[in-house]
Amino acid sequence: MHLVNPITCEQITLPSVITFEQVAPIYDSTGVICKYHYYSMSDNTRSVTRPPVTLALWQLRYHLHHKALLFYDDASVGSYIVAFIHNPGGQIAFARLGDEKWTRLPSHKYFQDCIYKDGLLYAVTSFGKIIAFDLSGPMVTMKIIVDRVNNFSGMERFYIVQAPWGDLLQVRRPEVGIKEEADGHQHQATFENKIKWMEIYKVCAVTRKLVQINNLGDHVLFLRSNQSLCCRAKEYPQLKPNHVYFTDDVSCVEFTCKRGYRLNIGVLDFGSKRMEEIIFPRPWSNCLAPLFIIPNPRKMDLALHI
Fold it and tell me: N- or C-end of the chain: fewer Cβ atoms within 10 A?
């Protein structure tokens, strides 16, 4: 496995996928890995009732991968941590620079996003529960920061974002899938109506409560299928303050493509709740969701700690 910078083509070597319990290599006659066995179990015990799926090398990513997030390690100069949210069941594993295998976090699952700060990996589940994993010691420990939300509808995605002013934010975004009309019209109103109820909360670790935020002020929020971020609009004149820029975050792109859905790419005015599409008409969902790219992630990481 590798992390690749799509602009510079620089690569960071990661531990092999065969260090995951769910993946077993298949070798050819020369001793080279030619295929994988993929076990669809959500714990460390391979199911005897569900045989593994045999996958070509290029197919594994579509079954195993959800998102990989790169964080600079505060405890060691020049080091980094990669958190990998993977299937089945939205589990999390992590690896540091030089690790030969992935370290699986305790048995919680259904994670959708995470962020690393001061030795703690904060992760949010598909039910809104936020858990802090302490990665600083020889043994990983965990603490529930916020329990699952009460008004969970089952039709939203959760994100956890570090704000420039120091707070952690939980963002709830509707899972929007709108089938395109045959004539390509009349989807805008439905799309805007579904996306406008996006909600942002400040995470209070002391009270273990969420406090809703109704205004981002001079800040901009980016939501995407890779790492989300919040930054100051005044540092980027092309961006609009108090706006949310978002791309699709559908985990089953093939599913949406077969049903004639298009990718969701737009800008939400968080004050007026009006949505503007970045690309019109929206592209078909026959490819992976688009990404926002940070040209210099180290610079962005430093900015978050000012």
Answer: C
